[in-house]
Design a protein that fits this description.
Elements lengths: L3 H36 L3 H11 L3 H4 L1 H13 L1 H10 L1 H21 L6 H31 L3 E3 L5 E3 L9 H25 L2 H31 L2 E7 L13 E6 L4 H5 L5 H18 L3 H23 L2 E3 L9 E2 L7 H28 L6 H6 L7
Antiparallel strand pairs: 1-2, 3-4, 5-6
Helix pairs in contact: 1-2, 1-4, 1-7, 1-8, 1-12, 1-13, 4-5, 6-7, 7-8, 8-9, 8-12, 9-11, 11-12
């Protein structure tokens, strides 16, 4: 049977995979929503844009549900801390991604009234813009540390102000996430559309690729030379029952770079993020759209993995009580729980991947103006 150390590492990796799966799939949904007012110039073009993601957006959200479930079951300390400290941000996610976006997709086509449809178009935009921004802000707060502490009974207390969630570094990460997902959505839109919509989507995809590269590089410099990171100096027992209070942690500028100095091959991860983002721009400029979309997925995976490698073994550090910081080695569920869940993942994750692949194969092809104008039964949005 796998030991607790191995299971903890596997579940740390699986959490990253689920986050990447969400960003790569539901990310282009959000990117398309952000681009709706920028690429669609009339009602038919708006319907074209919405119909590119209308059949798939609900299925794409399965990844965020899996991620939340994995945190709840595998990392209960992280779940409790994140959903308490990030309550405002998670509420905004629920209101925009979980409520307003589904309603906007379903309601905009109920009436032909122009005001009615423009109102729901704005809601669609908000439902893409706000979540794309918030996911980056969440990452930024995880890197800069969250103001919480655990008492001797492991009871959680949050000691920060809501305004601290919107610190400059977190907002910078939010802009990185926004441009990254908008780039991804623009490429998907260019693949699925024709003529004017395709040209405008491609323009914005290339623009966002350059902005993503800029934000990512500057963010890396910020982390390396200005942002205080966290490092365990003693007491980390990889095999002990979970208890975050049995270690010593220090905070210092440059601490998030220690894994790269210790394991030089890990430098390939952020470099891949930069190179693949540039490859998106080049491929899109040469109109190799599918290659550009693949490079975009690689860029997203590399950027998210860069955050994970920088923070390892920390998952959610505490900025007010360093000892309370939650790590891979002291914030997990029991060995039996992790093992049973791992078997479930091995069974069900391939099924999800196969079904998702089949859905995209069935829905392959462009959404044309003729399709929207002539076949009213085809378009529900």
């Amino acid at each position: 049977m796998l030991d607790i150390e191995t299971l903890r590492f596997i579940w740390w990796a699986l959490l990253g995979i689920l986050l990447i799966g969400f960003a790569v799939t539901d990310g282009f949904d959000m990117g398309v929503a952000v681009l709706l007012p920028l690429v669609a110039k009339d009602e038919t073009e708006r319907r074209i844009v919405l119909n590119t993601i209308g059949p798939v957006w609900e299925g794409n959200q399965v990844w965020i549900i899996l991620g939340a479930g994995a945190i709840f079951a595998a990392w209960p300390f992280v779940y409790a801390t994140a959903f308490s400290g990030f309550y405002l941000l998670i509420l905004l996610l629920l209101l925009t991604m979980g409520i307003s976006r589904p309603v906007s997709f379903k309601y905009r086509s109920k009436l032909p009234n122009l005001f009615w449809r423009r109102f729901w178009d704005r809601v669609v935009f908000i439902g893409g813009f706000v979540p794309a921004l918030i996911f980056g802000i969440l990452m930024g707060n995880a890197l800069s540390g969250v103001p919480f502490y655990l008492d001797d009974s492991l009871r959680l207390f949050y000691s920060g102000l809501l305004s601290s969630l919107f610190n400059p570094f977190a907002l910078w990460c939010g802009l990185t996430s926004l441009t990254m997902l908008t780039m991804h959505g623009g490429l998907y839109l260019a693949i699925k559309t024709e003529n004017g919509v395709e040209r405008r989507a491609l323009f914005w995809a290339k623009t966002m690729a350059l902005l993503t590269m800029f934000f990512f590089i500057v963010g890396g410099v910020w982390v390396a030379f200005y942002l205080p990171g966290y490092q365990i100096v003693s007491g980390a027992d990889h095999f002990a029952p979970s208890n975050p209070l049995h270690k010593q942690v220090v905070s210092e500028v440059g601490a998030w770079m220690q894994n790269y100095y210790a394991y030089p091959l890990t430098w390939l991860i952020p470099l891949t993020g930069i190179a693949s983002t540039f490859a998106v721009f080049v491929s899109a400029s040469w109109r190799y759209l599918r290659f550009a979309f693949i490079w975009s997925g690689i860029a997203i995976a590399s950027i998210i993995t860069t955050v994970g490698v920088s923070m390892f073994p920390f998952i959610l550090p505490s900025s007010t009580n360093l000892t309370s910081s939650l790590t891979v080695w002291d914030a997990s569920s029991s060995q039996l729980t992790l093992l049973v869940m791992l078997f479930s993942v091995i069974i069900f994750l391939p099924i999800i991947l196969l079904y998702t692949s089949w859905v995209y194969r069935v829905l392959a092809g462009k959404i044309s103006r003729d399709m929207i104008e002539k076949d009213s039964t085809h378009t529900a949005y």
